[in-house]
Amino acid sequence: MAAWGPKLAVALMLLGSAGPAGAQVADLVSRSAFRVCADPAAWPASSEDGTGYENRIAELLAGELGRPVEYTWYPMSTGFIRRTLAAAECDVVIGYAQGDELVLNTNHWLTSSWVLVARADGPLAEVDALSDPRLREARIGIVAGTPPVDHLAYNRLLTNIESYDLFADRRYNSPPDRMLADLGAGTIDAALMWGPIAGPLVKERSLPFVVTPLLKEERMPHLFYRITMGVRQGEDAWKREMNSLIRRNQDRIDAILREAGVPLLNDMGTGLKAAG
């Protein structure tokens, strides 16, 4: 996917210069609908049945624009941006990590972190750092290729892990669901998961687990991330419009996230975000 950066830029330049004089890349953005690119099976974030928190945020912003929401569904894996946003099938990805060159990032609307999920009645319930000696005898579930792997290596915890797929079509294979099921069954003693996935899953299912944001890891890579919305490269006017929407509705967005169970952090990732 990385090779798509320069190709996408060239394609958009050509699109911007084609047609009547004065035509702009922003003309690709629909003004009759709020067209969202989304994964149909990435609950709790997005879901084809509309129950994800990103679906609710999309409905909120569409209401502010006075437009209906229209979705282009595609699994969030290799080819997602190419087949959706870059193909002008839709105009915005609600949740996208800050700094990815495949999209033009808006201002962030969420800061969250990786978390440690453990049984509430177990010996790891109060663990809040990967250097905690109580983890040395624990079997830890981890998503392959994610930032916490480096921290496990530094703390010499890679000898007793259970690895789960990073990319999967969750309609058929859902690593987060399998991790939580394995934690409940005792196959693993703790799970390292992305907070905006783990928190809502645990809350919605009333699972007997604690979800602890990992805020004490000082080594790189950092374990907190800012989440933006992604628009097409070159669509600066649309980006500014989205930034304005986010700014005016941040408190309402936060309320949706808190209700869902997403751990909200301050902008620097050093502590929980204060309620507005």
From TrEMBL:
It comes from the Bacteria. InterPro entries: Quinoprotein_dehydrogenase, Solute-binding_3/MltF_N. SMART domains: PBPb. Residues 1-23 form the signal peptide. The keyword Signal applies. Residues 33-263 form the Solute-binding protein family 3/N-terminal domain. Transmembrane segments: none annotated. The keyword Transferase does not apply. Keywords: Signal. This is Substrate-binding domain-containing protein. The lineage of its organism: Bacteria, Pseudomonadati, Pseudomonadota, Alphaproteobacteria, Rhodobacterales.
